[in-house]
Amino acid sequence: MMALRDWFGGRRRSAVPDDLWVRTLGALPSLDMLAVDEKKRLKTLVEQFLAEKEFSAVGGLELSDEICVAIAAQGCLPVLELGLAGYRDWVGIVVYPDEFVVPRRVEDEDGVVHEYDDVLSGEAWEGGPLIVSWHDAQMAGAGYNVVIHEFAHKLDMLNGEADGMPALHSGLTAAAWNEVFLPAYDDFCRRVDSGEETIIDPYASDDPAEFFAVLSENFFELPDVVDREYPALYALLRTYYRQDPLSRLTKASTAPSTAAG
Description:
This protein is an alpha/beta fold and 261 residues long. It has helices at 18-26, 29-32, 36-52, 65-76, 134-137, 146-157, 174-193, 208-221, 223-229, 231-241, 245-252; strands at residues 5-8, 11-14, 54-57, 92-96, 100-107, 113-120, 122-124, 130-133.
């Protein structure tokens, strides 16, 4: 993405062209419904993010400004009010053209080793890179956002192994988090285990870390669903992210889109 980068005083600087920014917002509903001032602040955050991180493409994909800006914009949305410090412990973003295969080796309780191939659309490594499928990144919307999902894992990993509780700011305590988060997780697991077809991806029942990542996707993509099904959890995520996507959605439904930023 050399078109976005130059050197000034020995420091890398990334400026996103206005036309590219408008196209990026227009293609992503969760970003397009931001208020004008939020879009401007997000653009500044994205430019800082692009200057700090290193993108690379594999699998025959040719990296472009469009790819980098789209991924950066989605990834920066969760930290719009938290700042880039939440992403401070890693640098690399690896982009595949489509889903990718990761070999797994697991030893069960009996000592038997099982080897298999895991087909993924994204993965976040603790202390390492974030990996994402560009094909899946373009599918953002209607509750699915692999970029937000993986970036949520990075927030979760900031205070250690991903466990469903990110590093909490002064507005939240661990006790307050667990009081809301764990009952919601248990209830969702019960619903999935009972065979209920849920709007929220059943993958969220896999473990608390996936519940946090999937619910973060839905918080930004389908805030009305999260608020309807788990209002206390929606309020918790609203406090954590310091954002209210439901309010944005309500305003966007009664006003024309303004993608300027």
